[in-house]
Structures are given as C-alpha cells and as structure tokens.
C-alpha cells in the first residue's frame, strides 16, 4: 500500500520561513522522515508539494488510483479551500491533517479548517514529528482496521 503526502502553499519554504513558528527543518527533511516512517510500517509514500490549489486537487484525485491514505498539510488552503475538502470527500480515502504549528494558539482565522470534519485525525503543534505520527496512525488504520 502507498500513502500520499501532500503539502500545500509555502511549505516549500520550511527551514527559512518564520523559523520561530515553524522551526528549522526543511520540506526535504519532512519528506524523508515521512518516507522512513512509512517504510518501517511496510508502506510506500508519494510526496507532492504545490503552491497551487488546483494542483493539490489534482493530486488528491490521482491518489484514488493508487493510494490507500493521505497525510495532508494544506497550509493556508486549510482555512479557505472548499475545493480541496470536496476532493478529499470525493476520493473517500482516510486522511490525517497535520499542522506544524499549533494553529489554535495563533490568529483566529487559523482556528477553522474545512478539512478537519472529514479527517480521521488532526495533529497540530507537534512540529515536524506530527508527520511521523500521521503516517503511523494511517498505518494502524490500514492494517488493523479502524480502531
Ligand atoms: C500550517 C498552518 C497554517 O495556518 C499556515 O497557513 C501554514 C502552515 C502549519 O503547518 O502550521 O502555511 O499549516
């Protein structure tokens, strides 16, 4: 089985972007961590990052063909994108939503997520490690059933 790791806008800048909020690790570090974690669980992983909402929708639609679950940090589109929510609903794959920062400790506009009501789990404020937790959670759901 394969997971899709989907990162949205500005996450390509991790490492240099507001390091006080997001830390010093890069997107490449995150993708390597997620892939290592997936492999330890016997899963493959496809990593996609885009700054474009439509490209993220396309990646979710494509995942229907060959992925069993999705780890998604949609960045700011979390708070704005009905289209991405609809794509995740359409493919009906289990997904875990991740945010590096604790969005609930930040501005009000980051408190609402269009994706969260559909998510299997939401992990916020655990830093880059949240991606590893998300992969592990999907591995549990996929191999041991939905407990
Ligand atoms: C983020 C939180 C979002 O509010 C923000 O727009 C991001 C990153 C996070 O990982 O903490 O781009 O998703």
UniProtKB/TrEMBL annotation:
Protein name from the UniProt record: 3-dehydroquinate dehydratase
NCBIfam families attached to this UniProt entry: aroQ, PRK05395.1-1, PRK05395.1-2, PRK05395.1-3, PRK05395.1-4
GO molecular function: 3-dehydroquinate dehydratase activity
PROSITE patterns: DEHYDROQUINASE_II (PS01029)
Its biological purpose: Catalyzes a trans-dehydration via an enolate intermediate.
EC number(s) from the headed UniProt entry: 4.2.1.10
Pathway: Metabolic intermediate biosynthesis; chorismate biosynthesis; chorismate from D-erythrose 4-phosphate and phosphoenolpyruvate: step 3/7
Reactions mediated catalytically: 3-dehydroquinate = 3-dehydroshikimate + H2O
EC supergroup of this enzyme: lyase
Family: Belongs to the type-II 3-dehydroquinase family.
Known partners and oligomeric status: Homododecamer.
PANTHER family from the UniProt entry: CATABOLIC 3-DEHYDROQUINASE
Pfam families in the record: DHquinase_II
Keywords in alphabetical order: Amino-acid biosynthesis, Aromatic amino acid biosynthesis, Lyase
One BP annotation, GO: amino acid biosynthetic process
Binding-site residues for substrate, renumbered to this chain: 73, 79, 86, 100-101, 110
Residues the record marks as active site: 22 (proton acceptor), 99 (proton donor)
Residues of the site described as Transition state stabilizer: 17
